[in-house]
Design a protein that fits this description.
The protein is α/β, with parallel strands linked by helices. The protein contains nine helices and 14 strands. The protein has a single domain, classed as Metallo-beta-lactamase, Chain A (4-Layer Sandwich). A seven-stranded mixed sheet has the order 6-5-4-3-2-1-14, with no helix packed on it. The protein has a seven-stranded mixed sheet with strand order 7-8-9-10-11-12-13. The longest helix is centred in the C-terminal third of the chain and has 12 residues. The termini are close together. The protein binds zinc ion. The site of zinc ion has 4 residues, from loops.
């Protein structure tokens, strides 16, 4: 299985400015028996073309919550390929508020993800996990091809997070902040959650994290005993 990072950033500032540091939105892909695209923020096509990755072979799209840096390009997938599955929270289907056009909605199969429920289909299982960010958003634990991948999505820190993800092979953590942030994890909270997990990927990051990565990663290794991986655009990771 391969993880492919189309982008690495999130949050309003990184989304709009991207000022000189290598950040981009667009989400990431979990590629195995099925190709799964997670949180397609703006820039999906440009970024995918840059790395030679094909949008047309996407089977499943997951949007964890209805914020622009996670959903903006969702219609592209329905345009590229009829019959894909979209897994999303209920708010994505609110008629007045939806980012999915009526035309594209007819081209896809929609599955509503609910926290603490599991969706199983075609050899994949996805358990939707709790976040503290938006009302009906979710993180997830995905099993495919004998691997278990955890994704925190955007969330503030809460004590159960460590317990929720402790059995995963790979954990992708959204850590936008360097210090305390009431809606997102900071890098050291990410270290706390990732303790004991084989591969811990720091994703949905800001330019401050990239600029200070050398000292941050040293601290993460020493204090939390994790081998941190920084998600940069174009990163392909065999797991
Ligand atoms: Zn968000």
């Amino acid at each position: 299985m391969i993880l492919r990072f189309v982008g690495n950033a999130g949050g309003r500032y990184e989304l709009i400015y991207n000022d000189g540091v290598n950040t981009a939105t667009g989400g990431f892909r979990i590629c195995g028996t099925y190709n799964i695209h997670v949180d397609p923020g703006p820039n999906v096509l440009c970024q995918m073309q840059k790395y030679g990755w094909k949008i047309r072979n996407t089977d499943i799209v997951i949007t964890s919550h209805y914020h622009i840096d996670h959903v903006n390009d969702v219609n592209l997938f329905a345009e590229a390929r009829k019959g894909i599955t979209l897994i999303c929270p209920l708010s994505m289907l609110d008629y007045k508020n939806t980012p999915i056009t009526e035309y594209h909605r007819k081209r896809i199969n929609i599955v509503i993800g609910k926290v603490n429920e599991t969706w199983k289909n075609r050899g994949i299982s996805i358990t939707f996990t709790k976040t503290k960010h938006t009302e009906d958003g979710f993180g997830f634990i995905l099993n495919m091809d004998d691997k278990t991948i955890g994704y925190t999505s955007d969330t503030a820190y809460f004590s159960e997070l460590k317990e929720i993800y402790k059995h995963v092979d790979v954990l992708i953590i959204n850590t936008m902040a360097l210090n305390h942030n009431y809606k997102h994890l900071n890098v050291y909270e990410g270290g706390e959650i990732g303790k004991g997990i084989k591969k811990v990927i720091f994703y949905h990051i800001s330019k401050h994290i990239i600029k200070n990565w050398k000292s941050i990663s040293e601290k993460l290794k020493n204090k939390y005993n994790v081998e941190p991986i920084l998600a940069m655009p174009g990163l392909e990771l065999k797991i």
